[in-house]
Design a protein that fits this description.
Length: 254
Amino acid sequence: MASVPKTTTLIDRQAIDKHYDLYMFKHSATESLNFVGGQYIIINSGKMTADGKQLKRAYTILSNDAEQSTFQLLIRRVDSGNVTAHLRNIAIGTDLEFSGPWGKFVGNAKWPKQGPALLIATDSGITSSLSLLACPKFRDRVNFSKLVWLLSSTEEQNLVEWVRREILSKNANVEFIPVRPSGESWRSSSALSFIRWILRDRNSFSNFFLSGNGIILDEIKVFLEETGADSEFIGMESFFRSEPLNENGIRLGA
């Protein structure tokens, strides 16, 4: 994944709720970022770990890819996240190094094909779905989209309403289904049960895109293939892999 570092400038930062901030960056006027909807970049915070490693983190580009000189990142505040904490405290006008864009699947010229699409996002994976919905190639080929967001129980309603406004402002043909788990967080079994319910009548979708928790998404991808979905048109971006915690703070499945 080696590449020549690029530089971008932070030009705005807005709080969406107590957990999320929207960042806007301006790219070099002489160079195009060349990203497509759903791709991500890796930001170098400029800080180092105790053992001398650079602190970096991947973030999905939220913006419409018709605009390449500026781009937005929707970033969840992580109390233990060194990069996230650093970004919250840097001054407007600060330059940051990054690499990318990355994410090979969404750069596939054949995807999506004509027809409806089902997008399934867990947690902060919603940013990839929003990015795709804003992508002209996606909108031109897909005549209907259903977006299922398996969000955690800790996410605020303000964030859900902000996401809804973002979708409706760009797409009139998207059915948005945000759903919270019955417990603290989604497990693979409960997420799969809900997706089975979503597809209870028939699987009429031509395209699929899964983003977020890889442990959950792996199970959903297998299920989609078993129902006859073409694996070539099932895209997946796994940003993290984690099992929920039990009442003793131990990861289930560990």
